[in-house]
Predict the 3D structure of the following.
Amino acid sequence: MSDEQLSRMPVADRAEDNAFFPSEYSLTQYTSSKTDFDGTTYPEPYTGESGRS
């Protein structure tokens, strides 16, 4: 889809007053389609376990 076809209008958030989601155009210009976390290491990575019994 070309830039001319993408909406530049932000999308209102129905759950919040005066809150908006980015426009389709902004999402293509200012974000990447994929985040590269390959090779990232963390000292104490989250494992998904809550630790509760």
Observations:
- The helical segments are 24-30.
